[in-house]
C-alpha cells in the first residue's frame, strides 16, 4: 500500500508540474491542437485554423467579441460574479428547461484550450482552476489573443483568420466592423448560426453588437486593450 500511495503521489506531482509548465509555455507559444479541434477533425468536420498574432488582429474583432460575449472582460478577474448569480437564479427558476450560462471570455479560453465541451461539475471545477491560472500568468491581452485564435467560428473553422478567409475571402486584418460583429454573434453556437449568408437572427444581433461596440469603445481599459 505504501508503494501504491507513493506512486499515486508522484504521478499527481508530475502531472501538476507538467500542466503548470504547459500553461506557462502557452503564454508565448500556441497550442499544437485542442481537444475540441481534435474531435472536430476526428468527426470529419475538418480543421481550418491559422494562428495570427495579436497585433495582426483588427480592433474591430477585439471590440466585437468583448461587446458580444463579455463587456466586463477588461475589468474583471476572470469571473463575472453578477452574471453568475443571475444565471444561477434563472436556472433555479427554470429547472428542467434551457440552462443559461455566464462564462466570461477567460472561462471560455480555459475550456477551449485545456478542456472539452459539455457540462459537468467536474469540468466546471477544472475550468475555474485554469481560468484563475491564465488570468494570473497570461494577462488579458494574451487571453483575448488566444480566444480569437482557438474559438470555433463555424463547423471545423477555428480562429478569426480562418473564419475571415472562409466567409469573407480576406485576411482578418481587413475585417470591417460589421463583418467582425457577425463573427462575434455566432460564437455561442457556431454550428447553428451562419456568418455568411447571415440569417435574420445573425443580422439583427449583429446590429445590437455594433451598438454595444460604440458604447464600450470609449472605456479607458477597453481602449487600452483593443488598441
Description:
The protein has helices at about 1-25, 35-45, 60-70, 80-95, 105-115, 120-135, 140-150, 160-170, 175-185, 200-215, 220-225, and strands at about 50, 155-160. It folds into two domains: about 1-30; about 30-225, Orthogonal Bundle (Penicillin binding protein transpeptidase fold), CATH 1.10.3810.10. The model has no long low-confidence stretch (mean pLDDT about 90). It is globular, with a radius of gyration of 18 Å. The longest helix has 24 residues, at about 1-25. The chain has a two-stranded parallel sheet with strand order 1-2. It is built from eleven helices and two strands, in the order H-H-E-H-H-H-H-H-E-H-H-H-H. It has about 230 residues and is mainly α.
Question: Tags for this entry?
Answer:
227 residues, mainly alpha, Penicillin binding protein transpeptidase fold, 2 strands
In short:
With 227 residues, the chain is mainly alpha-helical.
Topology, element by element:
Elements: H1 2-25, H2 35-43, E1 48-49, H3 59-69, H4 81-93, H5 105-114, H6 121-137, H7 140-150, E2 157-158, H8 160-168, H9 177-186, H10 200-216, H11 220-226
Parallel strand pairs: 1-2
Q: How many domains would you count in the coordinates?
A: 2
Q: What is the ordering of alpha helices and beta strands?
A: HHEHHHHHEHHHH
Overall pLDDT score? 90
Euclidean distance between termini CA atoms: 58 Å
CATH architecture of the largest domain: Orthogonal Bundle
Alpha-carbon Rg, integer: 18 Å
CATH topology of the largest domain: Penicillin binding protein transpeptidase fold
Q: Which class do the helix and strand fractions yield? A: mainly alpha
Q: How much strand content do the residues show?
A: under 5%
CATH homologous superfamily annotation of the largest domain: Biosynthetic peptidoglycan transglycosylase-like
**What is the number of E strands?**
2
**What helical percentage do the residues reach?**
55-70%
Instruction: Give the biggest beta sheet.
Output: 2 strands, parallel
Highest-level CATH class of the largest domain? Mainly Alpha
Number of helices: 11
Tell me the quaternary state. single chain
Unreliable spans are none
